[in-house]
Amino acid sequence: MEMQKINVVGTSGSGKSTFSQKLAKTLNYPYLEMDAIYWQPNWQESSDEEFMAALNSELAQPNWVLDGNYNRTISVKWAEVDTVIWIDYSFPRTVFQAVKRAIKRSLSGTELWAGTGNIETFQKCFFSRDSIILWTLSTFKSNRKRYQAMFADPQYQHINFIRLTSPKKAQGFINQHIQQQQQTA
Asked: Per its UniProt record, what Gene3D superfamilies does this chain match (predicted)?
């Protein structure tokens, strides 16, 4: 089965963005980041209507790699998806990656999504109720349960589900597709 429309999911900090970007580049598909679609300037959230309209517009392309969870969007993003890749690394690894990313982003002050002015600060990452690290800690277990249930749910039997449980397996998946691209070139 050839992958055309791919959603990469996983807990915040799991490495889905890094993986998604590599996969999109390998397949020569557009990379779509749900956070970039959702977040407006000054950390303002899009309304559901705005978010769903923007997401529908982005997903109108013939192929893509979509990075992100946003469970309320499943009816939209999985309507035509053919593959869902779950980045499901261990809890310690995911937390380590989330902390490392938070420190890196806090120190760099890099804008997360072009034109939004949104940056992560040390205060926001480590001493706020909106902390991405707290979010990772509090959602890891529930995300795992939810994706296990979804992978087994008959209403999603049309989707090719792939679970990658280590960076080595994720890189192997990318390498496999690089080899396939080279063989067809």
From this structure: P-loop containing nucleotide triphosphate hydrolases (3.40.50.300)
